[in-house]
């Protein structure tokens, strides 16, 4: 009869439900989910700063008879992991550049946590703690996230000059690294509004818009506009760089200096002309506020503003203002120096 279920069909739907109720009535435990030996981390994101010591927690609830713990870093935008350290609970061996700064915490006999000393910008990312016992391997994943600042960067030649590899190198030359999408998103929520598209570490090209307008992708909603993945060798855009806290200090030297005179002025003070990343970090983390344009190492002239005022760039929001790239022989600016 139409509308009625046949007996075989009815059994197909009801039997699994009946068996579930029967097993629950007998008090059978729920099927095990997740690590058996490794405890799930309380916090999956660990926050730190450049130069600090970061601890990535990995703890065994109970140790298997014999095992090894393998720590590795998942490289962004690449289908590979970089080995950092392997331990059997008694002895540990580090691998690669990061392995030289990594050690086991050994807070107790079940502690397999990884300690990274002198955190670098490139240390940010996703890590995996893998327990290998020969029967059933387990792992937990954690993310190390650095507090920092994202800044857009283009060379003196103008906009859209970098392929992916050139953008990566340019950020490193300015005391930074290519920003990740997560870092750009955080910068957007903090107020970054920029019309020029730039490379990100994952190989995509994007730009953040707070105030939607015609020259910046139209009058749609604010957000992170995307060009999607691009050809890393052929396509050319700007770069979004990321930097974190400084070990040293940025200070301003007044005067009407050429670029070469700026270098000499910093050397006389036991310092060097600051890089763009240095200035952004000093503005972000030290509150550097200076209403005077100063030379930087790349030949640009900029100044940092934490308290906006009418005669300091005319913009309502804090930020690092730019005069672009004047002629190096132009004796019109002071300089920002960086001392370790």
UniProtKB/TrEMBL annotation:
Protein's UniProt keywords contain Endoplasmic reticulum: no
Organism: Hipposideros armiger (Great Himalayan leaf-nosed bat)
CDD domains (alphabetical): Link_domain_HAPLN_module_1 (cd03518), Link_domain_HAPLN_module_2 (cd03519)
Protein name: Hyaluronan and proteoglycan link protein 2
Gene: HAPLN2
Alphabetized PANTHER family for the sequence: AGGRECAN/VERSICAN PROTEOGLYCAN, HYALURONAN AND PROTEOGLYCAN LINK PROTEIN 2
GO molecular function, a single term: hyaluronic acid binding
InterPro entries named among the record's database cross-references: C-type_lectin-like/link_sf, CTDL_fold, Hyaluronan_bind_Proteoglycan, Ig-like_dom, Ig-like_dom_sf, Ig-like_fold, Ig_sub, Ig_V-set
One GO CC term on file: synapse
Biological-process GO terms, alphabetical: cell adhesion; central nervous system development; glial cell differentiation; positive regulation of neuroblast proliferation; skeletal system development
Signal peptide (UniProt feature, chain positions): 1-27
Family from the record: Belongs to the HAPLN family.
Major subcellular site: secreted
Gene3D superfamilies named in the record: Immunoglobulins (2.60.40.10), Mannose-Binding Protein A, subunit A (3.10.100.10)
């Amino acid at each position: 009869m139409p509308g009625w279920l046949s007996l075989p069909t009815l059994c197909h739907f009801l039997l699994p439900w009946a068996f579930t109720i029967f097993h629950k009535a007998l008090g059978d435990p729920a099927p095990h989910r997740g690590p058996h030996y490794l405890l799930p981390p309380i916090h999956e994101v660990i926050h730190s700063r450049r130069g600090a010591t970061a601890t990535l927690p990995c703890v065994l609830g109970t140790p298997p008879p014999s095992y090894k713990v393998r720590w590795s870093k998942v490289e962004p935008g690449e289908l590979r992991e970089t080995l950092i350290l392997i331990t059997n609970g008694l002895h540990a061996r580090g691998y690669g550049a990061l392995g030289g700064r990594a050690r086991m915490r050994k807070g107790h006999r079940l502690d397999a946590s990884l300690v990274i000393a002198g955190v670098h910008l490139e240390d940010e990312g996703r890590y995996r703690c893998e327990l290998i016992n020969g029967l059933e391997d387990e792992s937990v994943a954690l993310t190390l996230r650095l507090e920092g600042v994202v800044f857009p960067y283009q060379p003196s030649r103008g906009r859209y000059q970098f392929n992916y590899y050139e953008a990566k190198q340019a950020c490193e030359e300015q005391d930074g690294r290519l920003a990740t999408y997560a870092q750009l998103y955080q910068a957007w929520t903090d107020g970054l509004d920029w019309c020029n598209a730039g490379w990100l570490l994952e190989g995509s090209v994007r730009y953040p818009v707070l105030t939607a307008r015609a020259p910046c992708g139209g009058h749609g909603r604010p957000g992170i506009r995307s060009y999607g993945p691009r050809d890393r060798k052929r396509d050319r855009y700007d770069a979004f760089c990321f930097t974190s806290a400084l070990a040293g200090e940025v200070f301003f030297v007044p005067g009407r200096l050429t670029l070469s005179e700026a270098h000499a002025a910093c050397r006389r003070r036991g310092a060097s002309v600051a890089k763009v990343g240095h200035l952004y970090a000093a503005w972000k983390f030290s509150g550097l506020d200076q209403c005077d344009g100063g030379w930087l190492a790349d030949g640009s002239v900029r100044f940092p503003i934490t308290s906006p005022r009418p005669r300091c760039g005319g913009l309502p929001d804090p930020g690092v203002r730019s005069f672009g790239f004047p002629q190096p022989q132009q004796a019109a600016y002071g300089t920002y120096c960086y001392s370790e």
